Amino acid sequence: MNWVLIVMLSTPGGDFIDKKVEFVQTQAECQAKAQQTARHTPMGVQQHPLCVTMDHWTGKKKMPTVALD
Predict the structure, then answer these.
(1) What does pTM read for this prediction?
(2) For residue 29, is it within any domain?
(3) pLDDT tens digits, 23-65
(4) What CA–CA distances, in Å, run from 57 to 6, 18, 28, 41, 44?
(5) Distance separating alpha carbons of residues 46 and 15, to the nearest angstrom
(6) Is the residue at 42 inside a domain?
(7) Where are the alpha helices (DSSP H) in the chain?
(8) 30 closest CA partner among 67, 12, 62, 56
(9) What is the pLDDT, as a whole number, of residue 41?
């Protein structure tokens, strides 16, 4: 697994609720799954997908435009 799809869940007002994580092989697979992720779910919960490298996820090598969680 080389890529991680992180889906941040937030309230309609923007408050953090939780996150879902899925490990995938390629950047293309990660981006395809991110595009398939529904942006809004019942009760107004918003989903914000983000693809990061496994090195970023584990803290070994930060991606320059993505904050560490």
Answers:
(1) 0.86
(2) yes
(3) 999 999 999 999 998 777 878 899 999 999 999 999 999 999 9
(4) 9, 16, 17, 26, 28
(5) 10
(6) yes
(7) 27-36, 54-58
(8) 56
(9) 80
